[in-house]
Design a protein that fits this description.
alpha+beta, Rossmann fold, 2 domains, six-stranded antiparallel beta barrel, two-stranded parallel ribbon, 8 helices
Length: about 240
């Protein structure tokens, strides 16, 4: 989500962001027109930094090399950043998305350099978790990229603090409801989260979501999930 991106950029020290609307007219601009009418007239940069595989203009007609040439001609500096690798693997957004969609959270986090975040507002739920002895925060999010359904060990980020969390992503198949939900249980936390924004930093997938014979069996499994999640989180800087 846009808000999450802005928060991450702010934490990195970025002081200003230009959110330029992408329209059909803009998509039709040639590389030269884009540089002159958007980059120079609207931004007027001293220096532009792009990745090695950067493209711009209609049908991706401009490359990083083209931008370097235009910079020399029009009076701005261009820096092209080479491929960034973690180990022997080139970091790319497509590779990270693939890992998240597979549920390979540790590998995705390694390439991200941080936890993969799910961000949303805490809204009232049906109280299923509370009835089972594990009250959960129900997260409403418009986030498009999500991992597979299942149970995850995570950190819940609350302002400047963080709490251990067990996150369930799915449809509560034991109760046959079918409604997709994201729920987080924060062991030991007793505060009121309704209406607050909650960031869930996923650490590891514990298991897939599956139906149980009844609430008792489900409750016992959740207790096991909590125990395992705490063991994982304590091994990753937890307390």
């Amino acid at each position: 989500p846009y808000g999450k991106k802005m928060k991450l950029l702010e934490e990195m020290g970025v002081q200003a962001v230009i959110n330029y609307p992408f329209t059909l007219e803009l998509a039709s601009f040639s590389p030269e027109r884009f540089v002159k009418e958007v980059l120079l007239e609207r931004v007027n940069p001293e220096k532009v930094i792009v990745g090695y595989n950067f493209t711009f203009g209609s049908k991706k007609g401009g490359t990083a090399a083209d931008l370097e040439r235009m910079g020399r001609e029009l009076g701005f500096e261009v820096e092209v950043v080479p491929p960034f690798k973690v180990g022997h693997q080139v970091v790319s957004s497509s590779r990270i998305r693939e890992l998240i969609q597979r549920g390979a959270i540790p590998e995705a986090n390694r390439l991200l350099g941080r936890e993969f975040l799910i961000v949303g507002e805490v809204v009232p739920g049906k109280g299923r978790g509370r009835d089972l002895g594990f009250p959960t925060a129900n997260i409403q999010t418009d986030q498009e990229l999500l991992p597979p359904r299942g149970v995850y060990a995570a950190w819940a980020h609350l302002d400047r603090d963080r709490q251990a969390a067990v996150v369930n992503i799915g449809t509560r198949p034991t109760f046959g409801e079918g409604e997709f939900t994201i729920e987080a249980y924060l062991p030991g936390y007793g505060g009121d989260l309704y209406g607050r924004e909650l960031m869930l930093g996923l650490v590891q997938r514990l298991r897939e979501e599956r139906p149980f014979e009844g609430p008792g069996e489900l409750s016992r499994q959740i207790a096991e999930d909590v125990k395992r999640a705490l063991e994982i989180l304590q091994g990753k800087g937890g307390r």
